[in-house]
C-alpha cells in the first residue's frame, strides 16, 4: 500500500514507520521540519498542499496515518481560551482536516488511522485540554465511519509509552505503560484490517 504517515519522526511515528515498512508498505513521511514532505497539518491550506504533493509523489494513496498532535498541559485555572483552541486545532481539527480533505485522494477502500489517547477516559491533572481534544477525535471517528464507507476510519488510543516513563511516568501513577511496538501493531491492524469506527485502546 501507499501510506501517508504524519508525524513520522516522533517516537510513535518512528515505531509506526518501522512496523508498516516491515509489512512491505511504501511510506511517504510528513513532518513540520523533517520527512519526505514538510507541512504543518494544523493549517488547512497546508493540508491541501500536502495532498497535492502526495498525489504527485505516489499517484494515489491507500491509507493516511496520523501519529501527531500537540496540546498544552496546564492546570484548568491557568488555561486560557486560546490554550483550548490551540489544543483543538493541534490535536483534533488537524486530524479532522486530514480526513475531510483526504477522502477524494484516498482509494475507494482506503483507510484513515488517527491518534487519540487514554486521557479521554482516565484524565490527569493539567490534562484537560488533551482530554477534550482526544474526546473530539474519538467522537469524530465514530461519526465519520458511517458516512465515508467503503473507506474506513479508526483511531489508536494508547496510555503512556514504556519508552516515555522516565520523562512522564510521574504524571501517570499506577498506570501500566504500553510498549511502542504494541501501539504500532494497532496501527497495522487498522490499516490492514476491516474494522471501521473503532477506537483501538492500549493500556
Attribute tags:
about 200 residues, alpha/beta, Rossmann fold, seven-stranded parallel β-sheet, about 45% helix
Give a description of the structure.
It is built from six helices and seven strands, in the order E-H-E-E-H-E-H-E-H-E-H-H-E. It is of the alpha/beta class and 203 residues long. The chain has one domain: NAD(P)-binding Rossmann-like Domain (Rossmann fold), CATH 3.40.50. The chain has a seven-stranded parallel beta sheet with strand order 3-2-1-4-5-6-7, with helices on both faces. The longest helix is centred in the middle third of the chain and has 22 residues. It is globular, with a radius of gyration of 16 Å. The model has no long low-confidence stretch (mean pLDDT 95).
Radius of gyration over C-alpha positions, nearest whole angstrom: 16 Å
* CATH fold-level topology: Rossmann fold
Strand content: 15-25%
Number of distinct helices? 6
CATH class, anyone?
Alpha Beta
Encode the helix/strand succession as letters.
EHEEHEHEHEHHE
CATH superfamily, called what?
Answer: NAD(P)-binding Rossmann-like Domain
Question: In terms of topology, how is this protein built?
Answer:
Blueprint: E1 2-6, H1 11-22, E2 26-31, E3 37-38, H2 44-58, E4 61-66, H3 81-102, E5 106-115, H4 128-148, E6 152-158, H5 165-168, H6 180-192, E7 199-202
Parallel strand pairs: 1-2, 1-4, 2-3, 4-5, 5-6, 6-7
Short description:
With 203 residues, the protein is an alpha/beta fold. 43% of the residues lie in helices and 20% in strands.
Amino acid at each position: 500500500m501507499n501510506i501517508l504517515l504524519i508525524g513520522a519522526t516522533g517516537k510513535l511515528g518512528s515505531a509506526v514507520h518501522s512496523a508498516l515498512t516491515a509489512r512491505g508498505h511504501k511510506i511517504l513521511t510528513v513532518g513540520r521540519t523533517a520527512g519526505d514532505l514538510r507541512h504543518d497539518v494544523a493549517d488547512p491550506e497546508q493540508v491541501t498542499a500536502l495532498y497535492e504533493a502526495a498525489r504527485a509523489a505516489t499517484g494515489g494513496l491507500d491509507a493516511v496515518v496520523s501519529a501527531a498532535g500537540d496540546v498544552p498541559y496546564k492546570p484548568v485555572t491557568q488555561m486560557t481560551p486560546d490554550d483550548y483552541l490551540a489544543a483543538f486545532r493541534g490535536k483534533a481539527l488537524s486530524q479532522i482536516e486530514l480526513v475531510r480533505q483526504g477522502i477524494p485522494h484516498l482509494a475507494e477502500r482506503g483507510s484513515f488511522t488517527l491518534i487519540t489517547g487514554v486521557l479521554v477516559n482516565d484524565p490527569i491533572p493539567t490534562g484537560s485540554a488533551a482530554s477534550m481534544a482526544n474526546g473530539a477525535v474519538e467522537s469524530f471517528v465514530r461519526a465519520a465511519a458511517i458516512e465515508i464507507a467503503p473507506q474506513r476510519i479508526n483511531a489508536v488510543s494508547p496510555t503512556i509509552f514504556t519508552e516515555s516513563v522516565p520523562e512522564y511516568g510521574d504524571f501517570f501513577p499506577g498506570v501500566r505503560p504500553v510498549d511502542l511496538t504494541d501501539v504500532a501493531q494497532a496501527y497495522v491492524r487498522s490499516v490492514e484490517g476491516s474494522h471501521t469506527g473503532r477506537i483501538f485502546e492500549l493500556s
